[in-house]
Design goal:
Layout: H1 2-10, E1 15-19, H2 23-27, H3 31-34, E2 38-42, H4 45-52, E3 73-74
Parallel strand pairs: 1-2
Antiparallel strand pairs: 2-3
């Protein structure tokens, strides 16, 4: 995963969508590697699509009452409570 994140940074990617199961791998990475990247951890393909198909500034607007499944967006270190 480290090589993929380095390639994403070189390509100018700012938001990375990863499976929830990879959260600990990201937490264990050096802060320098994570810096400048926003991580979105998902469990289902519906969550992936909800993140991938919204305008860039609207990631935090997703909610059960809104336009799709609730997606938890985190910039590491992860907050203790989701908004």
């Amino acid at each position: 995963m480290k090589e993929k994140l380095l390639a994403a940074k070189r390509a100018g990617v700012q938001c990375v969508v990863l499976p929830e199961g990879n959260r600990q791998d990201v937490v264990d990475m050096a802060p320098k590697l994570r810096r400048g990247l926003r991580f979105v951890f998902v469990r289902t393909m519906d969550e992936v699509l909800a993140v991938a198909l919204v305008p860039q500034g609207n990631l935090l607007a997703l909610s059960p009452a809104g336009r799709g499944p609730e997606v938890k967006v985190a910039t590491l270190p992860a907050p203790t409570q989701w908004r």
